[in-house]
Amino acid sequence: MQLALFSFAESTDDLVSRAGEAREQGFTSIWLPQVFGIDALTAIAVAGRQVPDITFGTAVVPTYPRHPMMLAQQALTVNGAIGDRLILGIGPSHKPVVEGMWGISFDKPVRHVREYLECLGPMLNDKTSRFGGEAVTARGDLTIDAPAPKVMVSALGPQLLKVTGRLADGTILWMTGPTTIAEHTVPTITAAAEEAGRPAPAIVAGFPVCVTNGTAEATAQARERAAKEFAVYGTLPSYRAMLDREGYAGPDELAIIGGAAEVEDRIASLADRGVTTFAASEFGKREQRAATRELLVSML
Length: 300
What we know:
Elements: E1 2-6, H1 12-25, E2 29-32, H2 40-50, E3 55-58, E4 61-62, H3 68-81, E5 86-91, H4 95-98, H5 109-125, E6 128-132, E7 137-141, E8 150-153, H6 158-167, E9 170-174, H7 178-195, E10 202-211, H8 216-229, H9 237-246, H10 251-254, E11 256-258, H11 260-272, E12 277-282, H12 286-299
Parallel strand pairs: 1-2, 1-12, 2-3, 3-5, 4-5, 5-8, 8-9, 9-10, 10-11, 10-12
Antiparallel strand pairs: 6-7
């Protein structure tokens, strides 16, 4: 299992700094979300030209506001610019965002992702598509001489995991606990990939992580902080379903918090659950973040 960093960089300069530090420390990849800050692919194009020898992943680029042909064009351009070190993570986002903020229908998201991948895959690999579906259409050709990045999907539910197993290279998880990963995520996506004759899918699992001094008081304070910082994820239906499946009341129960030895054991145990890359989202006080990074580096 590889160890990676999940980075909420605030600017391109910030990403350059974070990626450079991560590379020097020995991490093989850094993952950047596409939320309401900097544009992930643009920032990666800038940072990747300055920081060599580390893989950049998007976690994830929302699909609804981006036509698959346009996203293929952008992703190929970025991957060519940074020397084939991009992993393109995509996902449908969430109904409150897609409909509430963008005014786009969130109808049948599994169908949307399936048709999106059926357009995106040929566009990335063959630079062409002639697909016309119910929700997505892409008919055209690209003239970009660049390698296709691997495509990951933020697949959580069973139907989206099956689509991802058949049409993509793996899944990027968030707010998904270890038992759910072992008993739901890995078996579902792996079976679909095998049926489609594809290689075993990658499982990238993001978790909030905080190394404390190990006392009950410090752990309780960190858990309270996690409950506040990550509260929104407990309100979004897809993440809420994963937390419920695991039996967690909220994101704070999923967060990996405790002394260094406890945190190391919990992270290491995820390899046995089928995780191929663990992406740490470090949080806490400054000294706790430093202790978390020190532990992660020691585990590389």
